[in-house]
Design goal:
The chain has about 70 residues and is of the alpha+beta class. The protein is built from 2 helices and 3 strands. The protein has a 3-stranded antiparallel beta sheet with strand order 1-2-3. The chain is globular.
Length: about 70
C-alpha cells in the first residue's frame, strides 16, 4: 500500500511546486503577515494518517505529513 501513498505524495508535491496552484504556497496569512501551511494524508485501507499544521519555511508540507 505504500506505493499508493507515495504516488499521492508525489502528486501533491507536484502541485505544491507548481506556481499555477496555491498548494504549499502559504495556505493562510497570519495576523503578522507571514505564511503558514497545513497538510494531511491518509491511507484508506489501514486508516493510518499523518498531518502537520501551521508550518513555515517548508517547501513541501505533504512530505512532513507522510509516514516514513
Amino acid at each position: 500500500m505504500r506505493n499508493a501513498i507515495e504516488v499521492v505524495e508525489k502528486s501533491v508535491m507536484a502541485l505544491e511546486n507548481n506556481p499555477l496552484f496555491n498548494a504549499g504556497k502559504g495556505s493562510v496569512f497570519t495576523s503578522e503577515g507571514t505564511h503558514e501551511a497545513d497538510a494531511a494524508i491518509m491511507c484508506g485501507k489501514t486508516l493510518t494518517a499523518g498531518a502537520v499544521a501551521a508550518v513555515t519555511n517548508i517547501r513541501n508540507p505533504i512530505f512532513l505529513a507522510s509516514d516514513p
